[in-house]
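New to this. Please check this protein:
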Amino acid sequence: MSKVFPRISRRRALQGATVGVVALGLLLWWLLPLGETPPSGTIVFSTGTPRGVYQEYGERLRTELARDMPGLQVKLLNSAGSQENVERVATGEADFTIAAADAVETYELQHRSGADRLRGVARLYDDYVQLIVPRDSKVDSVADLRHKRVATGLPDSGVRLIANRVLRAAGIDPHKDITPMAEGIDTGPDRLRHGKIDAFFWSGGLPTKGLVELAKKSAFRFVPIDGDLVTKLHAGGDAARYYRATNMPETAYSSVQHGTAVPTIAVSNVLMTRKDMDPRLTEWLTRTVIKSRDGIGAHVHSAQLVDLRTAIYTDPLPLQEGARRYYRSVKP
C-alpha cells in the first residue's frame, strides 16, 4: 500500500536547500582551506632513518598533502635525525622537517648558520628515550653500561645528542667508558639480535616500527631511566630543560613490557620551516597536518597525539607567519 507524503511548499524547499548549501560550504571550508586555488611547486621535506617514525610520518604526510595540494611536489630526504634535520632547514637544503626541541635549542645556542631563520609550524608528539638490551642482559640501569658496546645513534641524530647526555648524567664518559657504536633504528635492532652490540639507545614516537619488528624476532627488554637522571640533566641547564621524566606506557610494546610501565625521558617534537617560506603554502600545510591527524594516526600511532590546542606551542621556535594565520583562522 503506497504512502502519501505531505506536500512541501516552495518556500520551505528553498529554505532547506539554503541550509544544505551552507552546511556544504562549511565542510568545504575545512577540507579546502580558504576557497582558493591550492599552492603548487616543489618542497623538500627532511625525514629520518628507515624504520623510524620521522620517515613514516613524512611519507604519510606527503600522501595527505597530495590530496589537498595536487600541484605540490614533496621530495623526501632520509636523514640521520633531528640534528641533521635542523641544519638542513636552517641552511636551505630542506624546507620542512621534524626535530626534537632539544636539538633545535642546541643548534640555536651554538649560533649555527641560519639559526635565526628557523620557525615553528606545529608541535607534534613526544619522543621517548628507549634503552634496549637483550632479555637475559645483566644491565639494569644506565650506569651498568660501563665497558659495554652501546649504540648511541648516528652522529647527527637526536638520539646521539640525548644518549650522550644521559650517559654523562649517569657518570659515564660516552667516548671512554663504553664502546660507542654509530647505529640507528635501521641497523641497531639487527645488531642487537646477532650479539654485535650489548645495548642501544633510541629516541622516537611510540611505538617505533623497528622495535615492533624486533619484538617478533628476538627477546629484549627496556632499561629504566630514572627520574634522578633527569634532575641531573636539568642541573646542566641549556637544552636539557626540554627533557621531562615520564613513563613509557605499558601498552607501547605490550609483548615486551607485559603490563609494566618503564621510567624514561620524553622530549617534544616540532614541525618546522624557515621565516622566508611562503606563508600561504605554510598555512595550507599546517591545515593539512591538523586535519590529517586521524588518517596518519591510524598508521603512525604517535601522530594521534597531534592536537590543535597544543600545536601552537612550538618552543623554542616562534611560529612561522603562515602557521600563525591558520591558528588564528580556527581560533574560537
